[in-house]
Amino acid sequence: MDNSGQFRQRILVTLCLLSAGLSIPAGAARPAGQTDSALDRGRYLTQAANCKGCHTTILGQPYAGSVAFDTPFGTLYSTNITADEVEGIGAWTEDEFVRAMHEGIGRNGQHLYPAFPYTAYTQLSREDVIAIRDYLMAQPVVAHEVPSNDMKFPFSNRSLLWFWKLMNFDEGRFAADEDQSEQWNRGAYLTEALGHCGQCHTPRTLTQGLDDDEKFAGAVLQGWRAYNITPHETGIGNWSGEELRFYLSTGHIPDKIASGGPMADVVTNSLRHLSPEDIDAMATYLETIPPQAGIVPALSDVSFNLDEPAEDSALAATMASGEQLFETACVSCHYPDGGGPGGAYPLFPHHSAVRAEDGLNLINVMLQGLERHGSDGYKFMPAYHALMNDEQIAAVVTYVGRRFGGYEADFSAEDIRKQRQEH
Amino acid sequence: MTTRMTLQVNGEAREVQIDATTPLLYVLRNELELRGAKFGCGLGECGACTALVDGRPVRTCVTATGAIGERSIVTIEGLGSAENPHPLQQAFIDEQAAQCAYCISGMIMTAKALLERKASPSDADIRNALSANLCGCGTHLRIVRAVQRAAGVMRGETAKPDDAGMKDEGVQHAS
Amino acid sequence: MRPESGTGLVNSALPEALSRRHFLKGTGAMAIGFSLLPALMPRLVAADTESANGVRPAKASSSDVDAWLLITGRGELVIYSGKVELGTGVETALRQIVAEELLMPMAATRFIQGDTQLTPDQGYTAGSNTINQGSVPMRRAAATARRLLFERAAEQLQVQVDQLTGSDGNIHVAGDEAQAVSYASLIGNGLLEASIDQELAFLDADRYRLVGQSIPRVDIPSKVFGRFTYVHDLTVAGMLHARVIRPPDTGATRVTAELKSVDRSSIPAGVKIVQRGNFLAVVAEKEWQAISAADALKVEWHSQPRLPRMEQLYTEMRAMQSEEKTIASSGDANTALGEADETIEAVYQWPYQMHDSIGPSCSVANVTADSAEVWSSTQGVYPLRSCLADLLSMPEDAVRVIYVEGSGCYGHNGADDVSADAALISQIVGKPVRVQWSRADEHGWNPKGPAMVMVLKGGLSSEGDITSWTFDNWTPPHLTRPIARMGAKNLLAGNLASDLVPDGPAIGGDRNAGVTYRYPNYQVTTHWIPVERSPLRPSALRALGGIQNSFANESFVDELAHAAGADPVAMRLNYLQDERAIAVIKAATEKAGWQARKSPQRHLEHTDEMLSGRGMAYAQYKNGSAYVAIVAEVGVSVDTGIHVGKITVAHDCGLIINPDGLRNQIEGNVLQGISRTLKEEVIFDQIGVTSLEWGAYPILTFADIPEVDIVLLDRPELPPLGAGEPTIVAVPAAIANAVFDATGLRLRTVPFTRQRLKAAFSAA
Ligand code: FES
Ligand code: FES
């Protein structure tokens, strides 16, 4: 197997150093290997569908499954989709594979839990589904046994899914909108079907179906907030078209926004591999989504004139501790106001994670750090989950939230603890 | 591509011809032969490379030299010397606050910035301020004592006799 | 070639009055029994003209006094030590010991360490053996020299030897200080030749002036002024900077990845690419150029997932083909187990851990067609020389390895490997080369302290007496250091360039496995897993297997005490007769105010309640060296994890050379012990190590440090024992026992993270 050896040996060698002078190179997204052969096409589609993201654990072999998904109804584990005959899909027929992708029905006729996004994949053409299958079947076989799901009663009964599907699932292939351009339709196919962006970015209804009235307005999943990606000023409305395209293929916009957590994984595993034409198509489509208001205030709406906490208050002590930690642990990379030296990643207020009053993603990034491979290279921030304790992380997040996020942040060790448990 | 630039280091103007993206650490160590700042991680994680830039602790391994400009840089060599030790350096000697000492210059520089902003830190303040500086040898207890001792000296307090760094109490003659 | 900055030969920490330049300019330095081999002379002079005056080659025979020390015409005492300063303070301690024996002041000492051309071969500086073993020949040489000087003085002053007394490098007639001669004048114009008298008595303890005193460490001042020369700080004229680009199977024992292609166009001109087999490096004039090029170079490797899944590591280790060896046995443990009224069994697991060196390894080498000089922070200059000679295909005596202190290593970190990298690259490019490992290099590629599994069974009588004890552990060898005449297989560069597989003797995994308690029946067995089967390259990490085995043994004694309803301290004392063992346990428990107890105090019921508890552990390091007892006090809650509030240590390592230096080591052991118990675990996937920086492999921070209270038991009439490791072995079990005392949860897998605690709570 040729693996990403470069990624490994190269990891952590350097950080991007200069904040000044970073600009968006034109057409930074590399053209992915053109679809010369069926296998290349399969790889491209598999990447675009990000199968790897959900079917590979952190230390596991690609596509061997076992990633745990905590849902309100219990814990699900992604399956082994390598060609192993016993544990994987090696013994599946083409039709069985297509049925799973299109109809959410397993090999033995059982309904599949919709954590597997067949509600999106149902739109894929049969041809594309088969290309994905052929690619998966050509990957290294891993005889890895996945733990069985741990669903609470009555959700452990899959026949209930029949009812769920009735409410939340429309089986059927993608139908092009004749009124829109070919590019727009390609974008819709990539975004809705292959990329299944809505699975994270669209809020869910009571029955955990996607709430299409609020398409892409943002939602919380696995402890992370997927932000509003509609063209509203609280979403991506203030981004230039160029910025949006750059973001999609790199996962960041210098001095403006940086993706972490699951989005960084999506960039690493999927988006960075897409061709510039496809990135363009996705952006074209996203720009036409009806705007929705999200929870993160637009930068222009944030006022940075918070009252100082009362002296001797607990909050003042937290702020002092946070400031101290920020100065030693953070400032060298995140010199925040342009008033000092260095800092590869300044301009904190621009980051949604800093302005979002739930503090979720900010806490997550402190705990888990950040690792992202975009089309423009590797980005890294250390995880502080064991380098700082809960009180310290709470102090840093409170300080950053108040000072650079412009909101009345006051996080406690308890808040940090809760977020730890989400992971 | 290299550029010529002038850096203000330990009170002197020093001219260097470098690639401006080179992290300050390598410029200090290799161009200016100031090797007190150490390479530990190159990721801003450990603090071994800390120097002061305009009085603030900066991790020189992630700071591009080109971004420094006219700001004044102080390294451990500029803090004091055997002839004229800074109270922090003297306190680290008095407390014997070192094992391998690879982390120590970063500790001292970070502590210097702390004492500038807080003349009478509590032990908890010191621990918090140094907690992003890593020490593999486990010298932490002595480092906290040394910073506390230096703080006292810098406030003009004279060391009490029982402050002596090396205490031989607790030695029992077992035979 | 001599380093431009820093000195390879002489400790740069010397006070100015004793600087090398100063010393060498002085008049005729003479060795006692100085007998420079004429044949070596020209080479030495060529290698280092300045040193021809006083620095002489290593003696062929280490039984000669002058192999170890030399007194100059200026009255300075130069010590030649094969043991080296690793940041633990041994340099100061060794100076104290030798100066003491020779009745000379500390200030007159100079220290030359670890140089294959100058110092004796004392193997590795490791295993807490420097003070107890390493100091002995120096001390004997000093005692012999003292006698010779006294004899000569007696002759000169026309008195009997026993009428003389000495101090500060002078000898005078007792009661008449006017009748005196100095060592310098005794030696000044003649040679004294002698071999070491192995029988000579050392100075009486009651005459000690230096030994037993907290003499400040000689190296600390220049370190806090930023002027000490670590190996990282060394430069040599014309030196280039190199970085090694490594395959994906990071840290694996067997590196099987193959280099498929290197895109030379991916890096700027002016940077050289060096390749030999799978050994690949970039070389540049500027350090940052080399780093950037290593980052930019496009390389394709072919690799296979060959390592076990991490969650199956311990199961797989127990199933591996291994060699069984009885470490200790008495009576018939298995029969007694069968007959016991109650038996319990427990499995303890310890992960791979790495060396926490804050400075990644670094080395400078200058290899020419017929000679090699390598500046290294290796723990053994001689064994490294031998392996480098093989790597470079040169005769051993053409290679000179010079020790220069590095960042604290705590065992076999990347120091030897990086020297091999530098040497190989220097040979290929024909220029002096400095290699500085990256953080990821050190985290990923330094040899790891081995993972181990310990399975214990114990039998109790109805009265609560321990009737049987069995111990089985599974361990790879803890030593794959460079070993003389074993070739280059224990150097990474050798593995990569020539496809060699590391190897090493069955050492370390049985350390502290044996029984120090007087159980009627016991059986202790080690199952040695061959080096090449260890998923990650195993080697020496502080205390070797002592920490894993003591963790298991001392946790299990507590488990038996719990089963018997006994106080853990009383339980231990029931089975100990060694007075020194009893003394440390009593000292620690008294100091900590231990109250007899039946653990646990309480059972944890809610995840947010915070409970506190105390636990103790005892060990005699290596079952024959220093004695340590520890009382740990912890606060535990499932939500917030384990916080160690206080550690009380009682420590008996015989004669104490330097109490403050000792205390410094004990504190370091305690803190690193807590770090290894609560935080440290190397993470790997099926290809290689993935924890490549401090975020992924965290260590103790200032936020985690406890109060540490130390009782030193001094035994001036007994020989000194090493203190670099003993304390750490007792730390993990003391914490585990305290957690049990607090909560009733028994943690048997290190590190004790919140997740583990939570899992134990859910399972309870
Ligand atoms: S070397 Fe700069 S922070 Fe570690
Ligand atoms: S004293 Fe060695 S790393 Fe701190």
Structural write-up:
The complex is a heterotrimer of chains A (423), B (175) and C (764). With 423 residues, chain A is mainly alpha-helical. Chain A has helices at residues 5-10, 38-48, 51-55, 94-103, 118-121, 126-137, 160-168, 182-194, 198-201, 241-250, 261-269, 276-286, 314-330, 352-355, 360-368, 390-404, 413-421, and strands spanning 68-71, 74-77, 150-151, 219-221, 224-226, 252-253, 257-258, 370-374, 377-381. In chain A, helix 2 crosses helix 6. The longest helix of chain A is centred in the last third of the chain and has 17 residues, at 314-330. In chain B, helix 3 crosses helix 6 (140-154). Chain B has six helices and six strands. In chain B, strand 1 and strand 2 form a beta hairpin. By secondary structure, chain B is α+β, with helices and mostly antiparallel strands. Chain B is 33% helix and 16% strand. Chain B is elongated and about 70 Å long. Chain B has two domains: 2-78, Ubiquitin-like (UB roll) (Roll); 87-164, [2Fe-2S]-binding domain (DNA polymerase, domain 1, Orthogonal Bundle). Chain C is an alpha+beta fold. In chain C, the strands form six sheets. Chain C has a seven-stranded mixed β-sheet with strand order 9-10-7-17-14-15-16, with helices on both faces. In chain C, strands 12-20-19-18-13 form a five-stranded mixed β-sheet, with helices on both faces. In chain C, strands 21-22-23-24 form a four-stranded mixed β-sheet. In chain C, 64% of the residues are buried. Classes of the chains: A mainly alpha (423), B alpha+beta (175), C alpha+beta (764). Strand 6 of chain B pairs parallel with strand 24 of chain C, so a sheet runs across the interface. The complex binds FE2/S2 (inorganic) cluster (2 copies). One FE2/S2 (inorganic) cluster (FES) binds at residues 39-42, 44-49, 59, 61 of chain B.
In short:
Chain A: Residues 1-28 form the signal peptide. Chain A is mostly helical.
State the CATH class of the largest domain in chain B.
Mainly Alpha
If you compute it from the alpha carbons, what radius of gyration of chain C comes out, rounded to the nearest whole angstrom? 27 Å
**Structural class by secondary-structure content of chain C:** alpha+beta
| Low-confidence spans of chain B | 161-166
Sheet-strand content of chain C, in percent, reads: 15-25%
CATH topology grouping of the largest domain in chain B: DNA polymerase, domain 1
Distance between the termini of chain C: 65 Å
The tally of beta strands of chain C, per DSSP, is 24
Q: First CA to last CA of chain B: what distance? A: 70 Å
Query: How many DSSP-defined strands of chain B?
Result: 6
Average per-residue pLDDT of chain B, rounded, comes to 93
Please list the strands of the largest sheet of chain C in the order they lie side by side: 9-10-7-17-14-15-16
Count of folded domains of chain B: 2
